[in-house]
Specification:
The protein is α+β, with helices and mostly antiparallel strands and about 725 residues long. The chain has helices spanning about 1-20, 85-90, 120-135, 280-285, 290-330, 345-355, 375-400, 410-420, 425-435, 440-470, 480-505, 530-540, 540-560, 565-595, 600-610, 610-625, 630-670, 695-700, 700-725; strands at about 50-55, 95-100, 105-115, 140, 145, 150, 150-155, 160-165, 165-170, 170-175, 180, 195, 200-210, 220-230, 245-250, 255-270. The protein starts with a helix and ends with a helix.
């Protein structure tokens, strides 16, 4: 063992030292772009810096809109860069803008366009009302320069600087004079019942010169702006030093015009490298400075509980197996033939000499009895396997940097493509288990594995897409993209699933370590804590406690449009989730087997899968306590997307728990030397053994259950204390 540890240590040392000496490389599509001053004429440099605009979104609505949906300045030669599948599915709609800069050429108060609104024109009234709606719901611009978000940086509490990857289109002052959202930044925003349009931006572009690094020109390492509301009196010669804001009254009584302007300055900063230009954005993401002590405490608690659970289970099970095999190795019990009369004295002698069977050993002839609805269970397990492999590979790629925030849409694109290509293991696992359960219609199993769970997700997704389409949102998936998804599903995933199912069904059924009796054993009456529902409900508490802090980050990233980049920590939490689901399911499965309840197939899947129910409860709590979403459509979309995530998470965690429990049960019954026993011993009933000396922790599982409840109480106490402190 020491040699192996030393070998692994030196191997890791060699790999680390090797990779430290390696040179870096750029990911595809993420290579730096060099910029030079006008007139240099270097073919490797660009002079013009284009600005792209993305969709506009809000934290109060789940209906994003394209830039062109609002009445802003548009590019005369508008064009759209190619977008990957992930960007389309997430509703990103990137388009060119009329804002264009020349490298190192400062511009002050340049007019872009003027928007006129006439009182009696219905079209102008509609456009202005839509703009007011966007300001009232605090819709945010998202501009892009050199594949970087143009950020709005401002001071927050504790003298910290927060850089928002978007900036509002305007703000609103209520009828009673209360400024809303960004109106609090300027005391001049004081007119009641008035909207203020941010029609001017001061942009600062930071660059890093490459003379000292051996490359030509300069590279952009930062882009920030400050939105302002300025009422220009002279449209031809705008003055951006004015203090009068551009107010839009709630009632459209007079004709009005809005002049959009910008100023741009360039600043050299050789201390910021191109490879680290995202740092100032990521560091200022809210909650990145979360109490790391709290996160570490959460992980330590999970490890501590897992260690105690493993100790309880292994000590009890190890002693049980050792005593059982010791008794089997003794002289076999000689039962009288059926023709011999069984007297009370003879029966008492048999009971005294017989090995003390109890608990999980009593159900060795029924523990591998096929479950009810084995077809549905095998389908869930096949899809769960597909999701597990997809999640694992995606997280590995994300940790290696291939799915960084700079590579827009890469995360969801990678996940979808992996899911499509992993149809073969899904079909193989599903068909192999279906055959083990005694199924014979492998074609039905293969088709349902490929169509049932994806079909549920796709139907719900189409229903929400219909709502987005009716509302005119940019998040509505185009019809061509839907056809592409269907082609990938039916043209790639379904055939691969059928191929995997064919090979899986042609394999022999999984061999079980013990034989199954023809007549099912009667399950004794169970206590409240060994009944199915209480065990399933308890099984999801510990896995949820492992992930709920990280779940907060993920929900913030989705619904608050924040940049998520902590993939290393997410991968660590995923490993802890895997361990906790496995150990909690194994422990509860052992308790039920000790109580002579051998219906563990579905229970093992539902025990860890119940973690998804706690995720749903947390999502509901998050909706009412954290979000400010208004509107029936946005509410329906939130819970619709949440149900899809919960269903996928249910399949993932349920599959983890099932295979962990399956491995444990096979291992436990394969260790017991059942073949050395005479067949007559198997017919000693629980009634005949009444009064025999049986340990409380083995026969009923009371001692382990009391310890388990103590752990749950301790866990809940620590978590409640932690939330109270935070």
């Amino acid at each position: 063992m020491r040699r192996r540890i030393a070998f692994v240590f030196w191997l890791l040392f060699f790999l680390v030292s090797h990779f430290r000496s390696c040179s870096a490389f750029y990911l595809p599509g993420l290579a730096p772009v060099n910029f030079c001053e006008e007139g240099v004429g270097d073919p490797d440099c660009q002079t013009e810096i284009p600005v792209f605009v993305n969709r506009l979104d809000s934290q109060r609505s789940l209906l994003p809109y394209e830039y062109d949906a609002f009445d802003f300045c548009k590019d005369a030669k508008e064009w759209r860069p190619s977008e990957n599948l992930g960007q389309v599915l997430f509703g990103e709609r990137i388009v060119s803008s009329p804002y264009r800069f020349t490298f190192k050429k400062d511009v002050k108060c340049k007019a872009v366009c003027t928007k006129m609104y006439k009182k009696h024109n219905q079209e102008d009234t509609t456009r202005l009302d839509f703009l007011k709606m966007g300001m009232q719901l605090n819709y945010q611009h998202h501009w892009i320069i050199d594949n970087m978000p143009v950020t709005w940086c401002y001071d927050v509490e504790d003298k910290q600087v927060y850089c928002n990857p978007g900036f509002p289109i305007g703000c609103f002052v209520t009828a009673d004079g209360r400024p809303k959202d960004a109106c609090v930044i300027n005391a001049n925003f004081n007119w009641k019942n008035t909207f203020y349009v941010f029609n001017h931006v001061d942009i600062k572009i930071v660059y890093h010169k490459g003379a000292a690094d051996g490359w030509t020109g300069a590279r952009l390492v930062g882009a920030t702006l400050e939105p302002k509301s300025i009422k220009h009196t002279d449209e031809r010669n705008p003055n951006c030093e004015g203090a009068i804001p551009m107010g839009v009254p709630s009632r459209f009584d007079n004709n009005m015009s809005i002049v959009y302007t910008y100023s741009v300055t360039f600043e050299e900063n050789d201390n910021i490298k191109w490879a680290s230009r995202w740092d100032y954005v990521l560091v200022s993401v809210p909650h990145t400075n979360i109490q790391w002590l709290s996160i570490t405490n959460s992980l330590v608690i999970v490890l501590f509980l897992s260690g105690i659970m493993a100790k309880i289970m292994l000590r009890t099970l190890h002693k049980d197996i050792a005593r059982y095999n010791h008794q089997v190795d003794q002289e076999n019990l000689k039962l009288p033939s059926t023709k011999q009369e069984s007297t009370p004295d003879n029966k008492q002698t048999l009971l005294q000499d017989a090995p003390k069977e109890s608990g999980w050993k009593q159900v060795h002839g029924d523990v591998f009895r096929p479950p009810g609805q084995g077809l549905l269970l095998s389908i869930f397990l096949g899809q769960g396997t597909q999701i597990f492999i997809m999640t694992f590979i995606t997280l590995v790629f994300a940790c290696l940097g291939f799915l960084s925030p700079a590579n827009r849409g890469a995360l969801i694109t990678c996940a979808v493509i992996l899911w499509v290509l992993l149809g073969t293991p899904a079909g193989y696992v599903s068909a192999r288990l279906y055959k083990t359960f005694g199924g014979e219609q492998w074609q039905t199993n293969a088709l349902l594995t490929a169509l049932l769970c994806p079909g549920i997700v796709f139907v719900r997704f189409c229903l929400m897409n219909l709502i987005l389409w009716v509302e005119g949102s940019s998040a509505a998936i185009p019809f061509e993209t839907l056809l592409t998804i269907l082609a990938m599903w039916f043209g790639v995933s379904v055939p691969l699933t059928v191929i995997g199912a064919y090979f899986g069904f042609n394999k022999p059924a999984i061999e079980q370590p013990v034989r199954t009796n023809q007549i099912p054993r009667q399950i004794p009456e169970q206590s409240f804590f060994t009944k199915p529902i209480p065990g399933i409900v308890m099984g999801g508490i510990l896995p949820f406690g492992c992930i709920f802090i990280q779940l907060f980050f993920i929900l913030n990233s989705i619904w608050y449009h924040e940049i998520y980049y902590m993939f290393g920590f997410l991968f660590l939490v995923f490993i802890f989730l895997l361990i906790t689901c496995s150990e909690a399911t194994i422990l509860l499965c052992y308790f039920h087997l000790c109580a002579e309840d051998y219906h563990w197939w579905w229970r093992s899947f539902l025990t860890s899968g119940f973690t998804a129910v706690y995720v749903l409860i947390y999502a509901v709590h998050y909706f009412f306590s954290k979000l400010q979403i208004i509107g029936a459509a946005s509410t329906f979309l939130y819970f619709g997307y949440t149900m899809i995530m919960v269903f996928i998470f249910f399949l993932l965690t349920g599959t983890i728990g099932f295979f962990a429990c399956f491995w444990f049960v096979k291992k436990m019954y394969s260790v017991v030397e059942a073949d050395k026993r005479t067949e007559g011993v198997f017919y000693v009933t629980a009634t005949d053994l009444k009064g025999a000396e049986v340990g409380p922790s083995v026969a009923t599982g009371k001692a382990p259950f009391s310890s388990f409840f103590f752990l749950l109480f301790f866990f809940c106490f620590l978590k409640s204390s932690e939330l109270f402190i935070r």
